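Now for a specimen:

…
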Amino acid sequence: MLKEDGTKYEVLLVDDSKLVHIMGKKILTKLGLEVVATAKNGKEGIEKYKEHHPDLVMMDVTMPVMDGLEASEKIMEYDMSAEIIMLSAMADDDIKEQANFIGIDYFLQKPLTEEKVKEALGKIL
């Protein structure tokens, strides 16, 4: 999956689980994207976003220090064109509603699979 200019889409993966970092990188790399940075909490995710300006952020909802909804809102305030996919182990309608309210249109339920990620990417990129 390449951009129009032939370069790979760059992704920031924000999750407090090392397993999600490992599986996410594996899946995204297989799909032709490049994970340019990872972060273990929302605060770190904001810093990495400002440093790398990725094409896409995959953000967990529940994390220490700062949760994914608050971090996503701050990223959207910084860059209204940010593309964010929220990740969660729970299919919670309240969380989806909060995500939609701050401008996030796609919500991906864990565990991550190649099929789920590919479908989400097809809707966003």
Observations:
- The two ends are 9 Å apart (CA to CA).
- The CA atoms of residues 99 and 105 lie 7 Å apart.
